[in-house]
Amino acid sequence: MNMDVSPLSIILVKSDSKGDRLLFRYPFLIKQNNEPSSTHRKNPYTLPIVEDLLQSPVQPSSNINKENLTGLTDEVLSSLFAVKMELCNRKFELKVNDVRFVSHPTLLQLRNKQEKEDDSGIMLVNIVFALQALASHSVVKCYHDLSKRLGIVLKYEEKRCGYVSEQTQLMTTALDDGYPNGPGSAFKIILEKCPLASNIKKMYDDLCSTGLVNLRINRWIPLSFCLPQKVHQWHMRGKIVEPEDIDRCLNALRPYHSLLLLHPLQQMNDFTSLDGSPSLVRMLSQYSPLKNLQTLAADSDLTLSHVFELTAHLVYWAKATVIFPVCSTNKYVISPNAPIHINSPLVETFYETFPGVNLNRVISEFSLPTSLGQKCNPLYHRSQQSHLVQTIIWMLQHHLLLQLHTYIQYMPTENGLLHIKSDQSKKHMTSPSPRSSTVMSNYQATNTEYPRAESESGASTVSETPELLSKAVIIENVSFTSTEDDKQDFQEELLLDFTDEERSSIFKIPATNTPEDLKLFAKLCRKEYFQGNHHIEEIMYLENLRRSQLLQLLDKFRDVLITYETEDPAIAMFSCSS
């Protein structure tokens, strides 16, 4: 559900030996004295009507008015959120009508009474976020985490210098003094005098605008927070990205993927200084969208797992996205949701970045899937090729292009892939021909140790039984002679676990006369690379194959293999077409 994830209000409540009180809330409204009130009687000397006294007021069904919290007085909120000690230091969640309140109540030991063990030295501080009741579980979890982290910071500062005692005293004094226009005027004075109230205001503004919070509590403790459901909307055009979606995509990261920064490298200095990670600075110093993560890790002298962690960190904070390394074989097409109309602000931004170049003219060349190699004229100067690559990178950063990968589907018959019954499959797996038994016995006589089946990271698990897998491995390594009879026997042994109809279709292909091609085809089929779940780049990486080698195989076995192009589902979340 596409809804606003910004908070309706942020409320600060305290409870100590002097009682509970709402100290500050933002945003707040200041009532004007000249506002008419329907609750006051025109004549103060008239008696109230009995029916009005007996009739209970109608409770509002909604506490949201123009994206603001209404209908709940400060006294009601104070009594709701000044919870008992048993509910402290844990998640607090309350739903009232169409508003959901979430917080993490925290107990503080007052600095000037630390030596006393009575309750007079204990203060409850509760920073509450008011959200829409339909907010997702992940949004509620993020706001609870922010409230918890705020409580930890305030607890530390109170212990260090009595910061919370000082701020709450200033707020209480302003509320006790009283103002003619109600508590709203007091909140305005508090906002001017109390740094903690200013921090709450800035937090609210940042959460509503960008989703990135960067505060320094008491000009000492830095507090950084990212609301991913909000922060990714600026480059995903209103699409809400849940943390679970990011985790799922990052779990699909492979060493052949690449990192693409969404901001210029020069603008990342503030973020790296805030992060404080020297390894992040080192990785960004070697960054290039033309490198895959494995190469980036080697150039940065970092482990691949650590580069994955840094990539996840940048993606979570919407500082980067994941792509396939930009190279000449990449095939791009216009994203279905690309905002490339004539009045699009991206047209002007592109013109400012690349003077004299029109965005609509450049991107129109990708109306049909086009590879980067087709765009690079061999007669181009190196600067022209670099300019073309930079325009591609810019369009990828703004999600105007999406990359298409080639997937392969095994279609051995006119009706597609046959689904064999279990008994028939068992017959094929356990009843080898006499010639196959002779070949295996000869292989066993000359080899004392069987080769092990390689298990590649990220590849699909092999569906054959261990018995069949052993036969497949032995068959792939068996030697053959040049006679026609032996070649035919070798072909039959390679396709032993295939059905009769499949073998009949495959034997009609001239490429089966080449043992190397047939061996590679059978190997990739057994590892289920031709089930439409692995694109060419992934197969090349997992099996250490050259692109030309794989493309030649597809061409030779095109009678039983079909190809189609689509985007990589592992990183589809980072494009606006998904």
Automatic annotation (TrEMBL):
<feature type="domain" description="GATOR1 complex protein NPRL3 C-terminal HTH">
    <location>
        <begin position="499"/>
        <end position="562"/>
    </location>
</feature>
<comment type="similarity">
    <text>Belongs to the NPR3 family.</text>
</comment>
<dbReference type="GO" id="GO:0038202">
    <property type="term" value="P:TORC1 signaling"/>
</dbReference>
<dbReference type="Pfam" id="PF03666">
    <property type="entry name" value="NPR3"/>
</dbReference>
<keyword id="KW-0732">Signal</keyword>
<dbReference type="InterPro" id="IPR005365">
    <property type="entry name" value="Npr3"/>
</dbReference>
<dbReference type="Pfam" id="PF24064">
    <property type="entry name" value="HTH_NPRL3"/>
</dbReference>
<comment type="function">
    <text>As a component of the GATOR1 complex functions as an inhibitor of the amino acid-sensing branch of the TORC1 pathway.</text>
</comment>
<dbReference type="GO" id="GO:0010508">
    <property type="term" value="P:positive regulation of autophagy"/>
</dbReference>
<dbReference type="GO" id="GO:1904262">
    <property type="term" value="P:negative regulation of TORC1 signaling"/>
</dbReference>
<dbReference type="InterPro" id="IPR056603">
    <property type="entry name" value="HTH_NPRL3"/>
</dbReference>
<dbReference type="GO" id="GO:1990130">
    <property type="term" value="C:GATOR1 complex"/>
</dbReference>
<protein>
    <recommendedName>
        <fullName>GATOR complex protein NPRL3</fullName>
    </recommendedName>
</protein>
<keyword id="KW-0458">Lysosome</keyword>
<dbReference type="GO" id="GO:0005764">
    <property type="term" value="C:lysosome"/>
</dbReference>
<dbReference type="GO" id="GO:0034198">
    <property type="term" value="P:cellular response to amino acid starvation"/>
</dbReference>
